[in-house]
């Protein structure tokens, strides 16, 4: 099915030598993921797993702006308004299965995290075996800004970052550099963006490990790691209000900026994100983290903040969401706890393979 080159509106699927290459191909939408793209990527992985001629897989993005800006949340917005969220649930189920598939894929997957990599873009790349960033990389989970919570295994990854770096990234939704992504455990290898064509060409002829090593460089120092002196202390509490208070007291410009950013995010999303991170830290596998993600995502779909956040940021674009409730103090413990309640027969029910 995927021999040679096949062009689809949303994905380019190519076989070159030893390499199976998937190009997310919606540059006008910064390669935001839709259901068609998830299906094509999953089908290609299924076929290439059984093809001995394919030794490695590469995932990259079309255009100059980046790999992927996340899921198509505007479609989710309209589905929630008129379709009851059924299409959104189906999309998330397929997406989370793909995230787990990438993590457990038996052949090397090289994810080229050049440029912008946000939300669902992290899910399709940061679970791969060879995660490559450049000086152009801007990686983040910005969900709290639209009244949502990091999903696609994002809380699993961020909860395992050094110290409280993951908490900082999740609550603020701030994008980090390629060097920061490596320091946080979201990426492995650093190359110059000008070396990308050489890496892609070499992947068709050599193993993934050899090709990445050939073009890899020592990553610059992580600016985020240099701020751990206040990040680890400020984000240690399990209460979002206390975190905000500590950030204000630090007296550092970075902490002040973080406090201002969090204060502008959805209070409900911030509170549930913090709880999701703390819970994810105790879960034994990515699959368990994704099971939690579906519970939280489906509950988030019913929050007023989710529709309001997408409206303000991506539909009307007035950048002035009216959050409800408006403050962290007004977010009840019951609302937070309800986000994690079991789904019964609707559980995702992923499980890690037995060793």
List the helices and strands and how they pair.
Layout: E1 5-7, E2 11-16, E3 19-24, H1 35-49, E4 56-61, E5 66-68, H2 73-82, H3 86-104, E6 109-113, E7 116-118, H4 120-123, E8 130-133, E9 138-140, H5 154-158, H6 165-172, E10 176-177, H7 178-184, E11 189-190, H8 196-203, H9 208-215, H10 228-234, H11 240-250, H12 253-264, H13 267-280, H14 286-300, H15 304-315, H16 333-338
Parallel strand pairs: 3-4, 4-6, 5-7, 6-8, 7-9, 8-11
Antiparallel strand pairs: 1-2, 2-3, 9-10
Helix pairs in contact: 1-3, 2-15, 3-14, 6-13, 8-9, 10-11, 11-12, 13-14
Could you walk me through the main structural features you see in this protein, from its secondary elements to its overall organization?
- There is one protein chain.
- By secondary structure, the chain is of the alpha/beta class.
- The chain has helices spanning 35-49, 73-82, 86-104, 120-123, 154-158, 165-172, 178-184, 196-203, 208-215, 228-234, 240-250, 253-264, 267-280, 286-300, 304-315, 333-338; strands at 5-7, 11-16, 19-24, 56-61, 66-68, 109-113, 116-118, 130-133, 138-140, 176-177, 189-190.
- The chain has a single domain (5-346), classed as 2-enoyl-CoA Hydratase, Chain A, domain 1 (Alpha-Beta Complex).
- Helices cover 45% and strands 12% of the residues.
- It has a seven-stranded mixed β-sheet, with helices on both faces. A four-stranded mixed β-sheet has the order 5-7-9-10.
- 51% of the residues are buried.
């Amino acid at each position: 099915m995927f021999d040679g080159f096949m062009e689809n509106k949303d994905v380019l699927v190519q076989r070159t030598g030893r390499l199976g290459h998937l190009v997310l191909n919606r540059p006008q939408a910064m390669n935001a993921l839709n259901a068609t793209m998830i299906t094509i990527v999953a089908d290609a992985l299924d076929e290439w797993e059984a093809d001995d001629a394919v030794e490695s897989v590469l995932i990259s993005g079309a255009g100059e702006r980046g790999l992927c800006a996340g899921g198509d949340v505007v479609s989710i917005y309209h589905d929630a308004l008129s379709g009851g969220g059924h299409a959104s649930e189906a999309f998330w189920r397929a997406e989370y299965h793909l995230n787990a598939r990438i993590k457990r894929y038996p052949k090397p997957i090289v994810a080229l995290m050049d440029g912008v990599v946000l939300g669902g873009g992290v899910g399709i790349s940061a679970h791969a075996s060879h995660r490559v960033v450049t000086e152009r990389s801007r990686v983040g989970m910005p969900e709290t800004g639209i009244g949502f919570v990091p999903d696609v295994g994002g809380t699993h990854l961020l909860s395992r970052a050094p110290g409280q770096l993951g908490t900082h990234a999740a609550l603020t939704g701030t994008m980090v550099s390629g060097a920061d992504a490596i320091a946080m455990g979201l990426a492995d290898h650093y190359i110059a963006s000008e070396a990308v064509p050489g890496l892609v060409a070499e992947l068709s002829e050599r193993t993934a490990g050899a090709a990445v090593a050939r073009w890899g460089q020592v990553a610059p120092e992580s600016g985020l790691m240099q701020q751990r002196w206040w990040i680890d202390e400020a984000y240690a509490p399990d209460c979002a209000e206390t975190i905000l208070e500590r950030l204000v007291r630090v007296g550092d410009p970075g902490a002040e900026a973080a406090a201002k950013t969090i204060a502008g995010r959805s209070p409900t999303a911030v509170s549930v994100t913090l709880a999701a991170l703390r819970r994810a830290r105790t879960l034994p596998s990515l699959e368990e983290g994704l099971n939690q993600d579906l519970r939280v995502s489906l509950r988030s779909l019913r929050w007023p903040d989710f529709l309001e956040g997408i409206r303000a940021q991506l539909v009307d674009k007035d950048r002035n969401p009216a959050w409800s409730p408006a403050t962290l103090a007004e977010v009840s413990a019951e609302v937070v706890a309800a986000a994690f309640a079991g789904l019964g027969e609707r559980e995702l029910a992923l499980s890690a393979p037995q060793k």
